[in-house]
Each structure stands twice: as C-alpha cells, then as structure tokens.
C-alpha cells in the first residue's frame, strides 16, 4: 500500500495541476472593420473557439463569407447607405491618389476621418446598441478586432467582462502601445520601414528615417487617444454612474493582444511583452481536408508533380484578353507536369489537353498541401501567398491590382518565387520562368525553410487562440500578465524623475564643489599667492639691475 502512496499522490497532484476546463463560454466578437481581409482573419479566431465548443456571437458591418457554424451567431449591422457612399468615395479617393497610410494618419490630426466616424456611427446602430445596452446573454469575454477603433473597448466596459484585442497584421506602433511592447526605434522597424529579407540591423540612413516615422506615430497615438476618448464617452459614457470605467481605465484593462504574425519565421525579431500572443497563420487550415475523389486521383497519378493555377475570385479569365489565355494554355499544355487550373466557364475551356484539370471551384488550401504540388501560379493575394508559404510551395505571381504588386515583390525578394506582368506575357518568357522555378532548387528550398520555421512552434496558431483565450477566462482577465509600463505616467515611464534628480544632484554637487574651490582659492591660494607676490616683489630689484 505504502508503495503506491507516492504514485497516488502524484496522480492527485497532477489532477490538481491540470488547468480547470472552461466549457461553453459566451464570447462576443466585435469585428467592425470595413475590410473583408480583416474580417476573414478575425472570423478564423471565432471559428477556432466555436470548434472548441464556445458559444460565439459576432457583430460585423458586412456579412462574412464563411460556412455557417452551429456555435456562431452572426449579427450584421449594415452601415447607412449615406455612410456607405461616403466611405466608398473616401476609399476610392485614397487609392486613386496613391495616398499612403501616412497621409491617412496625418489627416487624423486635421479633420475627422469618415472611417473613424463610421465606426462610431456603427456603435449607435440599434442592433449593436441592443447588445451592450440590453444584453440577452451573459458574456464572459469580448474579442475586439482592432483597426483604429479602441474606443469600442466600451463593449467590455458595458458588459463588465475582460477583453482581448485582435490585430490582423504584423506588430506596429499604434497596436504595440496597447500592451506596452518595446518599440526602440534603433532596432524595431516602424510602419512601412521594410528590412530586406535576412537583414538584421538598420544602417544610419534607415535608422534616421525610422526614428522620424516612430516619433510621428507616437504623436499620432497621443492625438488618437484623445479622439478615441471622445468617441468612447459619446457612445458608452454614463455621467450618472460614477463606477463606469473611463476610456483610459479600459486601456489598462486589456487582457491580451493577438497578432496575426510569427516573428521567428517572418521576422524581424522584436521584443514583446507576455500579453502579446502570436497567432500567425490562424486563417490557414492546419490539416488539409481530403480532396474530391477525381482530383485526388488526378494528382496522385502525376509522376512529374503538379502545378496549381488560380487567379483568385476577383479576376476572372473572361476579363483577360484571349491572346493571353492562349499563351498560358499553349505553355501549360506542353508541360510534363499536371496542371490544376481554376476556370469559371466550363463550357468554354481553352483546350482539352490531358494534363490539365479545369474546375470552377478548387479547394486551394488542400491542393497546396498535396505532396505532388510543386508550383503555385497566383494573383498574389495575401491569403494565397500565406497558404503557399505555409505549405512550402514556390510561386509564380501575376499581380493584377491593389496590394498584389507589393505582395508579389516581397514574395520574390524573399526568394520564394518570381513575378511576371500578365498583360505583356509571351510564351517564351512564361516557359522560361516556369522551367526556372521547377528546375532551380533554390526557390523550393527557401520557401521550404520558411515553412519549416513557420510551423515549428510550441502551440499551433489555433492551439494558441484556444489556450490563451481560456487562460484569460480561467484567471478572470489574467491582468497579472500586464506590463508595468501600462500603469505608469509619462514621467515615470521614461524615468524622467530619476534623470531629473540625478541632474539636480549633479548640479548641486558642482555648485558645492565650485563654492569649495572658491573658498580654497581665496583663503588658501590667496595666502600662498600673497606669499609668492611678496617673494617676487623682493626678487624684482636684482632682476631690474641686469638691464
Ligand atoms: C459546438 O459546441 C458544442 C459544445 O457546446 C460542441 O460539442 C460541438 O462540437 C461544437 N460544434 C462544432 C461544429 O464544433
Ligand atoms: C449562445 O449565444 C446566443 C446569442 O448569440 C444566445 O442566444 C444563446 O442562448 C447562447 N447559448 C448558450 C448555450 O448560452
Ligand atoms: C447610467 O448609470 C445609471 C446608474 O448606474 C444606470 O441606472 C443607468 O441605466 C445608466 N444609463 C445607461 C444609458 O447605461
Ligand atoms: C490514373 O492512372 C491510371 C493508371 O495509370 C488510369 O487508369 C487512370 O485513368 C488515371 N486517372 C486519372 C484521373 O488520370
Ligand atoms: C473539348 O472536348 C469537348 C468534348 O469532348 C468539345 O466539345 C470541345 O470542343 C473541345 N474543346 C477544344 C478546345 O478542343
């Protein structure tokens, strides 16, 4: 019996150590962004938690394109037609003038932005208001999709529950400040400061520029807080309730910040606090689903590997000039590889080559995961590139519009593939490029290295979302993770009082030393000098005599 006692104890201890299992929490996702790509990422977070058995309610301003889930209730609050028109005009104006995000941010100083006003207006929509003024469900947690809208922390204030922020991109100053990430401009690149792949540090010129961008964003941050404070008070404030937390108080009650980013593979390495959780690639499926039977057979049959060709959902081949389609078909149909080609009009395929499989709908992610897939020909949308990087498939990009040229450039710079202009494509160039991508092993090696690093983590992106969300639920907000920096005023945060004291002590010491020297000079040196003078004076006469 005694022999078993330690073992029993161990079992008891282990049971005790097991974290309590959190079941079926009610979680509210506030995904107010007007950008579909933001909603896709945030919905992936919601779906992860729903798969785990939590009850998710999502508030958005657009109907997200995804399959209905039994544990997700989506509440859509559309913006007013007037607001929609203003936003559209504003976005069109921004993109036609090639305005950068800098001028967007700079404008926030001068006048209010239609985007921000729209986000405020949205919180006043009756369906949205009903959630926080008159909740029918007791919510345990709010997940707020972040996009210059942190006044919406008011949802968590109203519902009296913890809040997790979710940012869909790489860390950037306005998001870092939410949790107090270290943003030393000497080595942490600011917004739009892109290091070359593999570049570790910034040279003088780059650091100089980085310093100014960093400082500019710091100033934007200060203005932004004031603006957000006004929105917060307007939307959620309650003067008759002295207990109601202020905007600044809510900023100190943020439980976590999710970043759709993975430092070790995407780089650069930056210092982050324990409240920053990397969930890079959350929108990428971790385990492929089985392919449709005929497609699986087609791919399994290939001896030379396969190529996936898809220009996404927006660009259709019917929009592309027939000569270009002919160029593409002529080259692809002569390859020894199999080609899976996303093609809308199945009645009118460009040809009947036996090595090409045309289909209107393709499970892109699952095809990229297939071991026979050797090349992805893509329009360089962010989602597709992320999937190919995850699965380690080299790419040939035909960027068409929007952010695609930038994505293609970065992908090629990273050594994951090449890009071509589809409008001026010739058979020779295409054939040459495809041959280079398939025969030169460096592309597959680079993207393979990235893929290996990207997947090598203690918890996958989905596991991180589940673990850390439940951690917050288990520990009533997990505020113990917070950086002390969040709770410091600007003077203490920058140690100004300590430096000031040191300077003061230094000055006082100097003063005392000076007085002491003076005293010594006058009383001691003075006496010595008096003595010298007298001796000099007595020596003077004989000297004079020499002349
Ligand atoms: C929904 O949640 C329940 C538990 O509340 C869980 O058993 C079920 O698997 C979830 N559904 C899906 C599709 O994951
Ligand atoms: C799940 O959330 C919805 C609100 O979106 C609510 O109506 C429903 O009662 C919740 N289910 C459970 C089991 O709490
Ligand atoms: C404001 O606070 C008071 C006191 O707590 C409360 O009775 C009232 O319902 C609140 N008003 C709103 C709009 O939340
Ligand atoms: C795969 O190969 C087998 C035998 O070589 C052949 O019978 C079959 O038709 C092929 N399937 C496809 C989809 O090409
Ligand atoms: C491909 O085959 C189908 C049916 O066999 C035929 O109707 C069509 O004209 C062919 N297309 C081309 C481009 O040869």
From TrEMBL:
Q: Which domain of life is it from?
A: Eukaryota
Q: Where is the signal peptide?
A: 1-24
TM helices/strands, residue ranges:
498-517
GO: which molecular function terms?
UDP-glycosyltransferase activity
Which of UniProt's keywords are assigned here?
Glycosyltransferase, Membrane, Signal, Transferase, Transmembrane, Transmembrane helix
Q: Does the keyword Signal apply?
A: yes
- What InterPro entries does the record point to? UDP-glycosyltransferase, UDP_glucos_trans
Q: What family is this?
A: Belongs to the UDP-glycosyltransferase family.
* This protein's name: GL18788
The protein's organism comes out as: Drosophila persimilis (Fruit fly)
């Amino acid at each position: 019996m005694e022999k078993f006692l330690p073992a029993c104890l161990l079992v008891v201890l282990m049971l005790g150590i097991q974290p309590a299992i959190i079941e079926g929490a009610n979680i509210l996702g506030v995904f107010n962004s007007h950008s579909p790509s933001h909603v896709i990422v945030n919905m992936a977070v919601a779906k992860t938690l729903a798969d785990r058995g939590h009850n998710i309610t999502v508030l958005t301003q657009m109907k997200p394109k995804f399959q209905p889930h039994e544990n997700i209730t989506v509440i859509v609050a559309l913006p007013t037609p007037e607001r929609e028109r203003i936003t559209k005009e504003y976005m069109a104006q921004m993109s036609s003038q090639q305005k950068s995000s800098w001028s967007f941010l700079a404008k926030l100083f001068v006048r209010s932005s239609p985007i921000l006003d729209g986000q405020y207006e949205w919180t006043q929509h009756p369906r949205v208001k009903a959630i926080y003024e008159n909740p029918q469900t007791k919510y345990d947690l709010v997940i707020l999709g972040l996009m210059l809208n942190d006044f919406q922390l008011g949802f968590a204030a109203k519902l009296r529950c913890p809040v997790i922020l979710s940012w869909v991109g790489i860390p950037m100053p306005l998001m870092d400040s939410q949790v107090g990430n270290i943003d030393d401009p000497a080595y942490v690149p600011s917004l739009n400061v892109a290091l070359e792949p593999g570049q570790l540090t910034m040279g003088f010129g780059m650091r100089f520029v980085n310093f100014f961008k960093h400082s500019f964003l710091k100033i934007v941050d200060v203005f932004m807080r004031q603006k957000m404070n006004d929105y917060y008070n307007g939307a959620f404030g309650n003067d008759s309730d002295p207990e109601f937390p202020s905007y600044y108080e809510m900023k100190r009650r943020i439980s976590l910040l999710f970043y759709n980013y993975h430092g070790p593979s995407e780089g650069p390495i930056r210092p982050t606090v324990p409240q920053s959780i990397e969930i890079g690639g959350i929108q990428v499926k971790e385990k492929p689903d089985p392919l449709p039977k005929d497609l699986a057979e087609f791919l399994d049959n290939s001896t030379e590997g396969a190529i996936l060709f898809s220009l996404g959902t927006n660009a259709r081949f019917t929009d592309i000039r027939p000569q270009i389609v002919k160029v593409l078909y002529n080259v692809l149909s002569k390859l020894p590889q199999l080609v899976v080609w996303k093609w809308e009009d199945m009645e009118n395929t460009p040809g009947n080559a036996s090595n090409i499989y045309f289909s209107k709908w393709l499970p892109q992610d699952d095809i990229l995961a297939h071991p026979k897939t050797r090349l992805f020909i893509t329009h360089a949308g962010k989602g597709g590139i992320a999937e190919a990087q995850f699965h380690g498939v080299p790419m040939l990009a035909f960027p068409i519009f929007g952010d695609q040229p930038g994505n293609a450039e970065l992908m090629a710079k990273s050594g994951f593939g090449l890009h071509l202009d589809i409008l001026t494509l010739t058979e020779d160039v295409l054939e040459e490029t495809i041959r280079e991508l398939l025969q030169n092993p460096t592309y597959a090696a680079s993207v393979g290295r990235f893929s290996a690093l990207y997947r090598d983590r203690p918890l996958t992106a989905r596991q991180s979302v589940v673990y850390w969300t439940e951690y917050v639920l288990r520990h009533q907000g997990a505020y113990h993770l917070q950086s002390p920096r969040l709770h410091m005023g600007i003077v203490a945060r920058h140690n100004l009082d300590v430096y000031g004291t040191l300077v003061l002590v230094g000055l006082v010491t100097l003063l005392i030393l000076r007085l002491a020297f003076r005293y010594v000079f006058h009383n001691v040196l003075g006496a010595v000098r008096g003595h010298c003078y007298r001796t000099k004076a007595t020596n003077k006469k004989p000297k004079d005599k020499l002349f």
